[in-house]
Design a protein that fits this description.
The chain has 113 residues and is an alpha+beta fold. It contains four helices and four strands, in the order βαααββαβ. The protein has a four-stranded antiparallel sheet. The chain starts with a strand and ends in a 5-residue tail after the last strand.
Length: 113
């Protein structure tokens, strides 16, 4: 059983290039300074706030990420801290100039033999 936090957001048109680049970094699990710099381009000083999330959840892992038709979708493996990670992500993304934001918790019940 794997706990998952699913993030979906739609940014404003003027930031589509940044959101697309952010999706590519999440797909490559490149969660570091490049990602923080892109967040700063959209919302000043947000890169530092994202670093706080990385410090609080050092094992954060983007299982899947895509950017399609203006929507960024990222599936994070969250381990035992699912609720806390969901709350941290919601607090982080709420101040961004977005047209929609959805953060859901779920569980992958697939059993492996």
């Amino acid at each position: 059983m794997t706990d998952i936090v699913l993030l979906k957001l739609q940014g404003q048109a003027e930031h589509q290039a940044q959101w697309q680049a952010i999706a590519k970094l999440f797909m490559a699990n490149t969660i570091g300074h490049q990602l923080q710099d892109l967040f700063d381009e959209i919302s000043p000083d947000s890169g530092d706030a994202f670093e706080e999330i990385l410090d609080a959840f050092p094992d954060i892992w983007a299982e899947q990420a895509e950017y399609k038709q203006g929507e960024l979708s990222v599936e994070f493996l969250s381990g035992p801290d699912t609720e806390e990670l969901a709350e941290a992500l919601e607090g982080f993304f709420k101040p961004f100039p977005l047209t929609s934001l959805s953060i859901n918790q779920s569980c992958d019940d697939a059993e492996y033999e």
